[in-house]
């Protein structure tokens, strides 16, 4: 177990929370969104040594043994030809093992993150790396998740995949389940990952009222995700998997 500071979202009474995201260097932020973090010290447990069961069905995240045939994750053509199908097969297997009936798994985005990169978003620029996200968040909320699903039937994602509009409408109108799941892996074939390990919070330890909607305003759309206040940080159960290797991957639910 370690003690470390995590950047929780600070509540500013009377102000909306979020930020503008634009590739235009001359863009002027109108200042109507507030994004202030509070560094808060918490305990983060080594999940490799955890006594409780930490699995995708119970905690929303799970470390898997998942060797890859990839030779270079910097070769985007190889990522598309080899890795996407590996991810699809892996998620199908995990979801079916958890009792879900899987009709489709699609890869619509991928990001390479490096501690040497500065920006948090690649904005779809091919070959660009992003820096680590060093603040507490979840990628989607109850509004933006179905909105993103609808967008994937209107405009292809980064991978070029376009969902059939009738399938999206069927899912959203019938109450069928859908999920956004991240697959996180170290891509160094020789060395385990030491810097910026991903910290994960067991959602069962979080009170619903501590989640906050966070707006992300792009030039062509407004997205949103969840941030977390530190009001009850002492009760949040945080975990990390130290020294992840290339033959392991961490899956975690975004929605």
Q: How would you characterize this protein structure?
A:
It is globular and about 50 Å long. Helix content is 17%, strand content 24%. The chain has one domain. With 255 residues, the chain is of the alpha/beta class. Strand 9 (211-217) and strand 10 form a beta hairpin. InterPro entries: AsaB-like.
Brief rundown of the structure:
This protein is of the alpha/beta class and 255 residues long. The chain has one domain. It has helices at 56-59, 76-97, 144-151, 165-174; strands at residues 2-9, 16-20, 33-34, 37-46, 61-65, 137-138, 181-184, 199-201, 211-217, 222-228, 238-240, 248-253.
Which percent range fits the helix content? 10-25%
Major β-sheet strand ordering: 3-2-9-10-6
Q: What structural class is derived from the secondary structure elements? A: alpha/beta
Number of domains: 1
Report strand %: 15-25%
User: What's the tally of helices?
Assistant: 4
The whole-angstrom Rg is: 19 Å
Low-pLDDT residue spans: none
Shape: globular
Largest sheet: 5 strands, mixed
What sequence of helices (H) and strands (E) makes up the elements? Answer: EEEEHEHEHHEEEEEE
End-to-end separation in angstroms reads: 28 Å
Number of strands: 12
Round the mean pLDDT to the nearest integer and report it: 92
